[in-house]
Amino acid sequence: MKEKVKKIIAVFSIFLPAITFIIWADAYFWLLKGDRYKAFLQPKLRPLLILAMMLLLTFVVASISQSPWKKKETHITDVWLRAAILFVPALFLWTVYGQSLGTHALTQKAFDTEDIISLPQTPLEHSSISDTAVITISLLDLCKDAEKFEGKFIATEGMVFRKDTIAENTFKIFRFVIFCCAADALPMWISVNSGKSRNFENETWVKVEGKCKIDKINGRQVISIDAVAIQVIPTPPPEKQYLFFY
Amino acid sequence: MLLGTFVGGFIEVFVPQEKITRWLPEGRFATVFIAAGLGIFFPVCECAVVPVVRRLLNKGVPLSAAIAFLLGGPIVNPVVAASTAVAYFFDWSIVVNRLAFGYAIAVATGILMDTFFTKAQAIRSDILVSQNFSHHPESADKGGSISLRRKIGGAVNHAANDFFDIGRFLVIGAFLAALIQTMVPRYLFSSVASTPVSSISIMMVLAIVLNLCSEADAFVAASLQWTLVPISAQLAFMILGPMLDIKLLLMYGRVFRGRAIIVLSSLTFMLVFLSMMARTFVIK
Question: By CB count within 10 A, which of A135, A149, B9, B236 is most buried?
Fold first, then answer.
């Protein structure tokens, strides 16, 4: 009986690399389906994902049709260990989908938390936007071209970040911007001066409308909005939560 | 890395050793100078270059040239130049500094490694064994007439085996980097970067633990432009990262022997540190 089990494991081990490649190819297919990869990766990498999936499929064919001399080379335990480790990223993808970087990542990834924790609290100028055109802009474009929007009425979206140490009428909105993948995601944030106490929970998605301001603090440009309207919005689907450089 | 293993597989099957020997220029170090700049024509990231270098070593490429390509390829290439330029708002001095120092350090490390080690001392025995006695029926060094179809099949076989062999180190390295990114806040690094020595050293440690791709790390470095971290420290981060990080250390284990990895890592670290310190004082 023991011998039989050993034999089955040995036979199964021969096909373990092929099974691993199938799992990986399936993971790529799963990412491509419904643009799920945008929850992890820069959209321009789509052709590379398709290429990777095709390469993995050729690996599957090659592994199945591989000559017997190669299959005897590696120890069974080693083959299982390699397969187990390579299975982890696929498992990770399927379990982590739906979650995105939030306030914890913001505080971990920011190089200068001084700016996050204690931005200046400027008194709110009561303004009206009823007769003013509001420019809807992403947080990335706002941070890139802040001067262009200084003094104008803008609307932008992001997640709320509040620290207990700052005034109740001030909070930050932030989003993560990706160049290649979530590993290189950088937080972009601006300050929101809401005029009155607003107790938004951290990571609540909001749309803020108001007047764009730029202050110089310690030689750095600090962007803020004097808000006239703050609206809680539904959390976007995972593939729309990140912004992308180019 | 998938692409890297694929290219490696095709080198194994389609490029015979004598052809590579014929292509290499004469003179001990001429090859090193060319190899360090090969990324301009074959842009590769640091994960893809490891399986390619493994196959090149197997094909008789000298140790010095292989190391120069291993370290220089992921930096001295057009994709990295473009991403660095974009991240630094087309400040070309940063791009030139990154590529020039990356090239020089790759050349110097290749030459020094060749001085300290013979190929047999530096490379894992299984790679040298397969170089001396290629038991792969489709290998380009086996001679004889093999059909193109069988050759392509053989190349894909090699690629699949390499991926199955080295891929796990990429996964483990990525896991460790993710753990560090989650546990250690980045501001701890930038907040203690007050002197050139501390800022350069700290940014180098950050490059090792963050494991970022050479095509994306410039954006993280550029986010430090408005902090106290000097340009030399930002460059140290962008130059060392593609040469040495946790995942690469693990992947180097499939190519080099332990002692060679220690010397290679120490040399790379020291050369990046010294060159960036020198840059700091020269620019000042």
Answer: B236
Q: Tokens 């929101």 label which residue?
A: A192
Q: A116 φ, ψ to 5°?
A: -75, -40
Alpha-carbon distance B82 to nearest alpha carbon in chain A (angstroms) = 12
Alpha helices in chain B (DSSP H): 2-14, 17-23, 30-36, 46-58, 63-72, 78-87, 92-116, 119-122, 125-132, 148-183, 187-191, 196-210, 217-222, 231-240, 246-252, 258-283
**pLDDT tens profile B62-98:** 999 999 999 999 999 898 998 899 888 889 999 999 9
Structural domain spans, chain A: 2-96, 103-244
Class of domain A103-244: mainly beta
Residue of B12, B166, B168 to mutate when probing chain A, most A C-beta within 10 A: B168
**pLDDT over 90 (residue B185):** no
Burial of B72: CB neighbours in 10 Å, binned 0-12, 13-18, 19+? buried
Which residues from chain B sit within 8 angstroms of residue A184, using beta carbons? 212-213, 216-217, 219-220
Average pLDDT over residues B268-278: 96
Residues contacting B127, CB < 8 A, separation 6+:
B54, B57, B58, B255
User: How far apart are alpha carbons A39 and A100 in whole angstroms?
Assistant: 8
